[in-house]
Amino acid sequence: MIVLAKLILGFIFSYTLGSIPTGYWAGKLLKGIDIREHGSKNMGATNVFRVLGKTPGILVLLLDVLKGVVAVAVVPRILGLHDHLSYIFCGLVAVCGHNWTVFLRFKGGKGVATSLGVFLGLTIQVASLRLAVALCVLTWLIVFVAFGYVSLASIVAAAALPFLMVLFAQPLELVMLGVVFCGLVVLRHRPNIQRLLQGRESRFRFPFRKT
Fold first, then answer.
1. Burial of residue 200 (number of CB atoms within 10 Å: 0-12, 13-18, 19+)
2. Whole-angstrom Cα distance, residue 193 to residue 7?
3. 31 pLDDT more than 70
4. H-type helices in 53-148, by residue range?
5. Which residue, 96, 88, 80, 97, is CA-closest to 17?
6. How far is CA 197 from the centre of its chain?
7. Residue 80, phi then psi, degrees to nearest 5
8. What's the pTM value of the predicted model, to 2 decimals?
9. What angle do CA 106, 45, 115 make, to 5 degrees?
10. pLDDT averaged over the chain?
11. Percent of the chain surpassing pLDDT 90
12. CA angle centred on 60, ends 57 and 155, rounded to 5°
């Protein structure tokens, strides 16, 4: 019963932490706007970057990543939960909180940054996971620099993660978490996929690349 109570508390803390709508609050605090009514109408770091500027965008990105790290690496430890499944479920609940935040009627972001934070937090506990996560981040960077689409880079990196985890012989429960996160990322990016196919997706313009 004590362990069950700790797990329930962990899920509540992790969900609440993940639910913090950093992009939405940044829009309200800095410009008094609802970020969901501007740009791509998403409250993630990419849209904050476009609408509010570089510094707010980077700050929101870091905070969203931090939510995932804390949910996995801090919350379970505080509650005395030290098994992989506790880390995994706290991380999953945090991402669900970001995607379906209680603060905004269960409408949230796409979960990429918070998912990254979860896996960064897991690398603190599982050293063998570090190379797979590093290669996943490298995949994101390569696709982003090559094509200029944040959404495409996120989808490709998410799809690559489970394969990288299998390649480096990670435990089944971690691979399954990678599969779930991949599915969530693709699901949340459905409008972006449509725009990509139609050639209407917003593209980042690098200064070293001609238009």
1. exposed
2. 36
3. yes
4. 54-73, 75-79, 84-99, 112-125, 130-147
5. 97
6. 23
7. 80, 30
8. 0.92
9. 65
10. 93
11. 82
12. 80
